[in-house]
Amino acid sequence: MGLPKFTPLALDLSRQAVSTVTALREQIPAMPDVARYLKSRPVRRGFLWDCFDSGIAAALTGDPGVTRDHFERVLRQDALAQRMVEAQRKTRELHAIAADHDAVTAWLTRAVDSCRSKLGLDPAPLAIR
């Protein structure tokens, strides 16, 4: 039985993914670098996840003022879909604990572990400094 015709494309995509991840890890090696990158991006109205991600990064690097600002931007968005409603629920949880680095880290660790479990992946330690 021959290989499915999409196998070469899948292999090419996986090689591209590895290359992209490797380049990003070299450009953005640690959490402070991630936070700087995410916080430097312009805020785009309607791009809820930009503010959500940069808010989490700011919280993990001990910048509660920026954290709250980005989370408040998420909460001001019109929740047009269920995924946005869920993102705002999570944002309210994080907004309440934004100044507590350990609580944010624990929240994020639980969220990543839950996601990895749903995907059938083993738990992995987070490189949060």
How would you portray this structure in words?
There is one protein chain. With 129 residues, the chain is mainly alpha-helical. Helices cover 71% and strands 0% of the residues. It has six helices and no strands. The protein is globular and about 50 Å long.
Question: What are the secondary-structure elements, in order, as H or E?
Answer: HHHHHH
Distance between the termini: 49 Å
Uncertain segments: none
Percentage of residues assigned to helices: over 70%
SS class: mainly alpha
Largest sheet: none
What is the radius of gyration? 17 Å
Shape: globular
Share of β-strand residues: under 5%
Query: What integer is the average pLDDT?
Result: 87
Compute the number of helices. 6
SS elements, strand count: 0
Characterize this entry briefly.
The mean pLDDT is 87. The protein has 129 residues and is an all-alpha fold.
How do the helices and strands line up, and which of them pair or pack?
Elements: H1 7-27, H2 31-40, H3 48-60, H4 64-76, H5 82-97, H6 101-118
Helix pairs in contact: 2-3, 3-4, 3-5, 4-5
